[in-house]
Amino acid sequence: MKKMGIQALRLTAALALALAAVWLVLRMEPSAPPQPEVQAASRTLVTGGELLYDGEALAGADASLTGGQIDTLPDTPDDKPEESPDTPPADASDKGGLDDIQNIIDGGGGSGGQLPGRDTGGETGGQPGQPEEGDAWFTTSIVDGDRVTAAAYPFTIRHLKPEAQVLGLSVAVNGAVTDYAANTAAGTLTLTGGVNTVTVTAQYRTADRTVKASRTYTLYFLDGQWLLIVQRASDHASLRGLAVTERTLTFSAVAVQGDMQQPVQTVRVNGSTVTGSGDLYTAQLRAGDNEITVEAGGSIGLTETYTVTYTAPSFRIDTAFSDGQTRTITGDTPNGGTETVTVEGGSESARVWVSVEGVTGLEKLEELRLDGRRLSPGADGGYAVTLNARAPVTLTLYYTDSDGASREYSYILRFRRTDSGETLLPPTISAQIEADGTTMGLTDGLVLKNPAVLLLVEGRSGKGEQLYSNNFTVTVNGTAIPAPTAQTGSLFGYDTYLRYEGANTITVTAVDNEGVSASRTWTVYYEAGEITVTISVEATTVGLGMLVPATAVTVPGGTSALAILEEALAQYGYTAALDRGEYLSAICGPGICTGYSIDPELKELIVADGMDAQGVGYDPTPASEDRLGEFDFYRWSGWMFSVNGSYPGISMTSYAPQDGAVLRLRFTLAMGKDIGAYDGSGGAYGESSGNYYREW
Asked: What is the tens place of the pLDDT at every residue in 562-572?
């Protein structure tokens, strides 16, 4: 090829560059014998079309991949190098000639031009399990996913590693392989109508190894027939045989005929229909092969099925919640760990889906439990989970990891209600204070002489439904009271202690079954000082009368009933025997049981009631003359105390009376039935379901 004159080069800058490219293009000759010697220049040849279209992008890529050695066209005709004697001359019939380069300039790659930023490089296959990912050895002008209207598809190839010797080059179109000379830089593919799979393979020799690098493209030849085009959205790669490492796949699906484009009718992923937005569809893939079927109905009548293989980069278990959240367990997740998840929705009924992706084949989900209850999957593979607006629930996954070891991991699920469109009224809350058997309304400014009181809480939902203990949260001065200690009807009793002299705050929060909450706060005052209570110790049921007659005792406010009792007993020569340091098991004193007697009528009632479990019948005796306590005479005997005529049902250690309270400690032979202390809320016992007809 002779040098061109200056006059011709001045026609246009584009024409000059195009002609320069033509000068560089080598005519591709299929099955041509290799050149006697492969020069370094043969590994870096580039066509003008490639540079004209993507000069800046390619230069950047070359700079990173070749250490800054970038081949460019000469700036002026005078800088143009002499032709290599090994380069065959180009003629007008060359399919990679001037016309094609001009098409690239005018059409932006419509006949094979490389799009900016598109991955067109060849990567090594490496050894099984050891790919050299991202190591590009060549780049081509072939555009993956390109749509063309001509069977002839020109392309160029550029090798990116100057230190590597090119040993060979082959191109397969729909499985038909054509071999080319190592120094080939350009050529033309012949496409068939519809989908074409093109694989470019190059062999290289470096100082220490031989490498085979390849790259596969999908090209669409629109030959006038309807054609389904289904491509990954990110890079237009065909879904046919696609392998991915990301679980979420977004792809486009359209039917094309020439310049016409129609949306498809149905898209199914693993048998489930997927709804798209325009021509875009998003699928959540499962581990392994995923079947994606696309149908274009009506007069088009095309159906294609694609297999996309999803391989997780490592072992993982994904738990997807019905509100769209996903949590992941990997091999690094600690065994027995926990994680808090807030699940949103308009209902406490939710679903979760669990998918396991492994690398060894040992990985599997053993079972799912909600608060210890085993769950079973539904028809859709999801697990039904009932959340709780008032308290979290625990979802535990039991699974086998990549090493075959049994592991578990828990999600603490909290529920946050979203607007369902229904106007929901907040719950109503009322509270009372019980002090020494006297109940009074809880009001701001209430003054109490004793820091220990019983808080009685009651509530209704906005729909009028009764609320229960699990609906309430009670705090005193910011400290939560874990649970109620008593219940009477709809009232729940919380042992409350006012630890500050002066102002104390009591807050009650209620959350109903719809997740709607309300709170009320009261300020009450504790005035420290001395209180006076009246206490007596009575053993009338066994004929011993008043061990301690009604006695007024003055003590500091907040003193426990047990401490008051011990002081009173000491004045009369008795001591209290305690079980575990808090439960009054007996009162001891020399000859305390001397002279005991039980009314025969009371004995008859006890035997008839079945409270004579020890079989002593009508002749019961104490275990000791110096001790009167539990299990003496009958199995159900022991000491019980009342405050202002009511039995609180708690230990004397836990109770601190208010000023003016009247305490009576009484010995019972029938667990309170003989002294008016029977309360069925604690469970039925004996043959009768109430107190005896009188007190002894």
From this structure: 889 998 999 99
Name the token pair of 140: 């081509």
Class of domain 530-682: mainly beta
**How high is the pLDDT of residue 561?**
87
Residue 106, classed as helix, strand or coil, is helix
Within 10 Å of residue 666's Cβ, how many Cβ atoms? 22
What does pTM read for this prediction?
0.36
Going from the C-alpha of 21 to that of each of 16, 80, 85, 101, 525, the distances in angstroms are 9, 11, 17, 8, 96
pLDDT tens digits, 481-506: 888 888 888 889 898 888 888 899 99
Maximum C-alpha span of the chain: 143
Length of the chain: 696
Beta-carbon contacts of residue 673 (< 8 Å; ≥ 6 apart): 605, 609, 611, 686, 688, 690, 691, 692
Closest CA to 463 of 434, 497, 431, 422: 422
Q: Are 27 and 1 in contact, with CB atoms under 8 Å apart?
A: no
pLDDT digits (tens, 9 = 90+) for 131-163: 233 368 999 999 988 889 899 999 999 999 999
Domain span(s) for CATH 2.60.40.10 in the chain: 227-310, 316-417, 428-526
Does CATH number 3.40.50.150 belong to domain 316-417? Answer: no
Which token pair is 312? Answer: 């997780």
Residue type present at position 295 = E
